[in-house]
Amino acid sequence: MGGSRAGWAIGLAVAVLGAAPLPFHTELKSSSPAKDERLAAPPAELKLTYTTAVEPAVAQVRLRGGDAPVALGPIARGETTADLVVPVDGRMVAGTYTVEWQVLGTDGHPVSGTFSFVVEVGDEPPVASPVAPSPELAGGEVGDPETAVDAVQSPSFIAARWLTFASLVSLLGAVAFRVLVLGPLARAGAEGAVVSAAAWRAGVFGAGAALFLAMASMARLLLQVDAMSLGGFGPTAGDLVGATLWGRGWLLQVTGALVAAGSLHFAARQWSAGWWGVAGVAGVVAAVGSSLSGHPAAVEGLAGLAVTVDTLHVLAVSAWLGTLLLVMAAGLPAIVREGVEGDRSASVARMVSTFSPRALVAAGLVVLTGAGSALIQLGGIGPLFTTTYGRTLLVKVGIVAVVVAAGLNNWKRTKPGLERGADPGTLRAPATIELLGAALVLLVTAILVALPPH
User: Fold this and answer.
1) What is the SS3 assignment for 41?
2) 50 band by pLDDT with thresholds 50, 70 and 90
3) Does one domain contain both 104 and 248?
4) FRET pair for 314, CA 20 to 30 Å: which of 91, 124, 366, 428?
5) Chain centroid to CA 88: how far?
């Protein structure tokens, strides 16, 4: 139903990928002491330099000689936002030492690693046999992507992100349904009882989606705190929320969700454009927060553009597939319950005819903004085929193509049939296919968020 003639743009999502800046997945760029460096005397401090800005408040650094920890001072920012400096307070004998580190990347991914160095003359006379590093800690390469913590790719993380995306699209879909479908129907003089009942159902559905969004966001915060734990210790939830861009994005998302839930609770009780407007603004704020806690915020030099395009992509998806969900979950039940007997087919046809042209525009925007996000984040057509992120993105593009094809079929066949008086039940099967495809697209998106784009 929500398809469009923009099928050619699916190919455009791949074809237009040219040279563009890559988002930097945070890695350790250099260190002092360097990996495998041999020092004539113990270092006074450790200096770690990363490929992106890092926040000392949520960073962790450990120094070990074998199984014995060496006392370190508080982690501080160095000369740039990408530098961390850690004073070495403990005594160091001659031997091999291993540094463990963990930081939070700009894209919200916890990243960790290890490297070793040798002290040839320590604070005490050299021991007969140098201290050997623990096997599980030694050998980490500087900048080795394998050192990234894989907790964000766990099933629990993916499930929390999927629920977050699904709730956000449903929340925004409820507002879009009220504005794009019920508003025009009311102005055209459609059955007042049907429109009011559908608005009430949309308000209740949207408020529930907003509460689910808040709960899913809380789950993401708890999972993030757990992922940042290094050896059982790590930053608190307050540190993550107050000191990082990821946390500020999270706070926007939760605040938007809670404000939207309250607004839609009142909107469900009255035909008030004001409450719906507040809910819409809150939903957009939540969408911006989602973008700030992911890959778009990590694009070097183009973060503002990347966040804007990604937010528009979420709004377009919601206006298309989120609104379709509300047509099925609020519009059709309202017609069945409140519609005039014998005129229900005509009521369904009017609702579908109102929704379809708007869905066409939204579907086109989905494709165009999706292509724009890919262009910004991949940085070229090569990574589309050579990286896990690129290949997963191709899977998503393929599923979107199927959903677009299903929508196009509904627009050309199902809608005309309803206008000729066909049974409203003929809408359920094709619309369900579109919605199942949308759920699968959101699942693949939840997986993409966990993968570095290069």
Assistant:
1) coil
2) very high
3) no
4) 428
5) 38
Residues 6+ apart with CB under 8 A from 185: 195, 350, 351, 354
Residue 424 has a pLDDT of: 62
Residues 340-363 pLDDT 10s: 555 777 888 888 889 988 998 998
Beta-carbon contacts of residue 426 (< 8 Å; ≥ 6 apart): 414, 417, 418
Read off the tokens for 405. 């094809």
Q: How many domains does the chain have?
A: 2
67 has pLDDT over 80: no
Regarding whether 165 and 121 lie in a shared domain, the answer is: no
- Shared-domain flag, residues 208 and 352: yes
Do both 14 and 35 map to the same domain?
Answer: no
User: C-alpha 174: how far from its chain's center?
Assistant: 20
For residue 115, the SS3 value is strand
The whole-angstrom separation of Cα 70 and Cα 427 is: 68
pLDDT digits (tens, 9 = 90+) for 239-292: 889 889 899 999 999 999 999 999 998 887 765 678 899 999 999 999 999 999
Give the integer Cα–Cα distance in Å for 366 and 12: 12
The answer to whether residue 177 is domain-embedded is yes
| DSSP secondary structure of 202-254 | HHHHHHHHHHHHHHHHHHHHHHHHHHT-BTTB---HHHHHHHSHHHHHHHHHH
> Of 99, 125, 147, which closes a domain?
147
Domain assignment of residue 161, yes or no: yes
CA 248, chain centre distance (Å): 14
Q: What is the CATH number of the domain that holds 136?
A: 2.60.40.1220
Q: Whose CA is closest to 303, among 18, 107, 35?
A: 107
- Is 454 among the domain residues? no
Phi and psi torsions of 226, nearest 5° = -65, -40
CA angle 353, 355, 356 (to 5 degrees): 70
Separation of alpha carbons 345 and 339, rounded Å: 9
Instruction: Report yes or no on 2 lying in a domain.
Output: no
> What DSSP line would sit under 3-20, residue for residue?
--STTHHHHHHHHT--S-
Tokens of 362: 């939204």
Cα(347)–Cα(445) distance, integer angstroms: 35
Contacts of residue 114, Cβ cutoff 8 Å, sequence gap at least 6: 98, 99, 100, 101, 137, 138, 139, 140, 147
SS3 for 135-172, per residue?
CCCCCCCCCCHHHECHHHHCHHHHHHHHHHHHHHHHHH
Q: Residues 326, 203: one domain?
A: yes
The range of the structural domain enclosing residue 305 comes to 8-18+150-448
> Strand pairing partners for 233?
230
